[in-house]
């Protein structure tokens, strides 16, 4: 064999070794096509103080749901109106990225529905994650700003469109077109939920009929004759079908024969249609929010979406403790379920801090100030998750709020506040404490400051402070008990 051929053979052998090594050691993306074993529902709960935020629930069978994070929100909007409704969750085809998009709206702040619809936010709120548990800060996506006279941007949804290799984001905007002002569905295309195409009209029911809620599901193997099915709240709950996300749609029918409508047909008046496929079988659920009666979501199911006559009502479901409003459901792989449950499942401890000398009172936050109170309402204001100390995880603790995730008890000028973790070393030190034997009773606990070791958490006139402890009264004020 000649030298050039020998050198070429050596190079080819090295290339093969490199390729084999890379294929063995390169990290694999989360496989979206792994078998699905669970379900994740993202939703909001209503117009309460913290109800218009992001909540999660988990299910193993698609019918019986468990609230995550002890029923508290898992994400808070800090942009726009500082409230979100109608969230939708989206997974990339590779299963390596996720987005939550939601309406930028907080009715609980006192905003009227008229103002929200006619002079509201024209942006959506977006969160992004690579693992379903660590999410980016929220950002605004001004999808409706280019629509003439747009008054809002409500009830967003998104679906990956294989035909174009990007995502179709669609939502309702209240605007005047052809002399008629009403809600219609518009869409944009995006590959990253940051930049997007110009908005285009997607659904217009004609005459004066508005439409706000619509959701599309892709059906494997085109069961029922079509690849995509769309459920819309447009006076009825209208079911349509298509073989193309942006193509023409065929009207399959509505649910009037089941006594279900969006108002025009009377009966059980619902909104927020939410699709879900049962894992491992050709059966689908369409969840409908019974907002008119306040009963929350109900499922109807079908094994063939090609006819609305195939739907059946179900009674064998349980939605957990919290009221679930307009959201979406994503099927989960075993790995995804494990991560979500490890982060927000029932195994995560939630505790209250009980005062030693005022045993009917507990540490709570109110308007981000911290004090001890009795009969705390809402109860979650007095619930915290003791986590390893932010500044030192060995023998130290930090207290994360249950209903303000990412917010911690911290001292500032020796006063206590509930504040969002800004990632700084100063914040971490101010929010870290050493649990020691109670200064007034060794069977209880006291909490020594990490960065001011001569001071402890104590209450004074019911307000929490960081003080030096020199008297019997102060020792009692600085003694607490972690309780359920």
Report on this model:
- It is a single chain.
- Mean pLDDT is about 90; it is low at about 1-30.
- About 45% of the residues are buried.
- The protein has helices at about 5-25, 115-120, 335-345, 425-430, 470-475, and strands spanning about 35-45, 55-60, 65, 85-90, 100-105, 125-130, 140, 155-160, 165-175, 180-190, 200-205, 215-220, 230-235, 235-240, 250-255, 260, 270, 270-275, 285-290, 295-300, 310-315, 325-335, 350-355, 360-365, 370-375, 385-390, 395-400, 405-410, 415-420, 435, 445-450, 455-460, 465, 480-484.
- It folds into 2 domains: about 35-345, Neuraminidase, CATH 2.120.10; about 350-484, Trefoil (Acidic Fibroblast Growth Factor, subunit A), CATH 2.80.10.
- About 10% of the residues lie in helices and about 40% in strands.
- A hairpin with a 4-residue loop joins strand 8 (about 155-160) and strand 9.
- The chain contains 5 helices and 34 strands.
- It has about 475 residues and is mostly beta strands.
- The strands form 11 sheets. The protein has a 4-stranded antiparallel β-sheet.
- Keywords: Glycosidase, Hydrolase, Signal.
- It comes from Catellatospora bangladeshensis.
- One of its GO terms (biological process) is L-arabinose metabolic process.
